[in-house]
Amino acid sequence: MLKHGGRxxxxxxxxxxxxxxxxxxxxxxxxxxWPVPELPSEVWQRLPEEDDGLEQIIxxxxxxxxxxxxxxxxxxxxxxxxxxxxxxxCRVGVPVPGYREHGYHWCSAGHDIVPxxxxxxxxxxxxxxxxxxxxxDVLVWINPNNPTGQIIPPATLLRWHxxxxxxxxxxxxxxxxxxxxxxxxxxxxxxxxxxxxxxSLGKFxxxxxxxxxxxxxxxxxxxxxxxxxxxxxxxxxxxxVMGQALLDRSWQYQTASKLKHDSDKLRCLLQxxxxxxxxGSSLFQAITIEQPxxxxxxxxxxxxxxxxxxQSEILRFGLPGNNRDWTRLTSAIQAVCSY
Length: 339
Prior knowledge:
- This protein is α/β, with parallel strands linked by helices.
- It folds into two domains: about 10-35 and about 250-335, Aspartate Aminotransferase, domain 1 (Alpha-Beta Complex); about 40-245, Type I PLP-dependent aspartate aminotransferase-like (Major domain) (Aspartate Aminotransferase, domain 2).
- The protein contains twelve helices and 13 strands.
- The strands form three sheets. The protein has a seven-stranded mixed β-sheet with strand order 2-8-7-6-5-3-4, with helices on both faces. A four-stranded antiparallel β-sheet has the order 9-10-13-12, covered by helices on one side.
- Helix 3 (about 55-60) runs parallel beside helix 9 and helix 4 packs parallel to helix 5.
């Protein structure tokens, strides 16, 4: 099992600080998530039904065409685990650095993993040399990337997709952090053969605990995925909450604006303390530093949990949720980063 952010109970035990005294900035989850209303009693009492209108809401919200296959899943993780079993062993490119669950599960399913770094995606001097794709059967891309925040423009991703699809390949795009920058999403292209788009309610909507997301793909891949994950993969309460959250456009617009403001504020705070900011998204900022675990431990001694990445010299900070937390983070950065 790979380690992730949010392991607050473990941190509390390790550092001897009660759970309620921690400020957890390790997950990149919106600290001011969508306000979940009281749920109708029937969503608890009945089995989930696929014709409850959720797929139509997803298509409307994402701009996906009616012909696109739409599969609600228990968060992006459910799709990340299931998709590798839908293809025979092949060569799969994954971004490095990037969310490691992708490579882990494709490798576990018997596929050959090809790390993809900046030298490939920059496309050489012309910027359009995509020959590196010819050694892949599947390319998994994270857009925006986690943890670097890098965004690849849709035109480039679609160019990659066309090159892969000519040979029966797939482009799998994980858009877990995309919600605040919808202009860069490929969800509206859902249904193209060989294009698979993953979305989740966990980050932008701040609903990681509900374990809800969806996959957009062509009908053939969608059918195979449904058969793989089986019935009732998404609970009735999760389906209801997802539908209501996606329909709340007013909250989404206001939240996107606030998150951008707060992310910019976090970047300026880190830069002002001399940190080398690698990049970020609307929900986090990442810095590069030698021996990130030592700095991470320094924050932990102050009851502040951040995310360090073992395979790279990267430390990632999520967003505080109120003025008190901003003050606490500022004090911790000044204390820890001054050494």
